[in-house]
Amino acid sequence: MFAFVTTLIFVVTSCEDTSTKMDDNYPKDYDINYALKQVIEKDPVNINGIDVYSYFDFFKTYRLTIHYKSGKISSIEFVNGDIPFSAYSFPIPSGETECYYNTESTPNTIRLKGSDDAVVYFGNGELYVPFKLDCKELTYEYRFKEINE
After folding, report:
1. Is 145 in contact with 53 (CB distance < 8 Å)?
2. With b meaning 16 or more CB within 10 Å and e meaning fewer, what string describes 53-82?
3. Alpha helices per DSSP H over the chain
4. Could you state, in order of their start, the residue ranges of all structural domains in the chain?
5. In terms of CB atoms within 10 Å, which end of the chain has fewer, N or C?
């Protein structure tokens, strides 16, 4: 019994929760670049959607960069490229724009600082942006992949 208690005390006092601790050697300020991997079109018949990315070359020009400062999301930058429409119903500032990561919402969101405007969602292990265009029946969703640029 004494050995069990001694072992338990040793384990409890020597354990440190490292599940949320960042490696000390990992840079605190860095950028992650994203491009579109899919553009999903959904309608009442195709509720899971179909990927229309490969049908339009202009989707290849979209870029998104998330900037981290002190290990936290601090700003975001969009390059709409040659896409002839915006996925947002509000104006997106050009250049690097301050933002914050809202973990209080489900799914988690990246929102523009000083507003409730959600610009990117994080759910099911990926970044995405849901949007609508002119047709009431259709909805779309950008899905992103990390790229090295």
Report:
1. no
2. beeeeebeebbbbbbbeeeebbbbbbebee
3. 2-14
4. 26-147
5. N
In the chain, the amino acid numbered 91 is P
Distance from C-alpha of 40 to C-alpha of 50, rounded to nearest angstrom: 5
Tokens of 111: 């929102």
- Among 135, 129, 133, smallest CA distance to 34 is for 129
Tokens read off for 88: 């947002």
Per-residue pLDDT of the chain (149 residues; tens, 9 = 90+): 555 444 445 544 555 555 455 566 667 899 999 999 999 999 999 999 999 999 999 999 999 999 999 999 999 999 999 999 999 999 988 899 999 999 998 999 999 999 889 999 999 899 999 999 999 999 999 999 999 87
Q: What are phi and psi of 66, to 5 degrees?
A: -105, 125
Give the phi and the psi of residue 111 in degrees, each rounded to 5: -120, 150
CA distance 130 to 141: 4
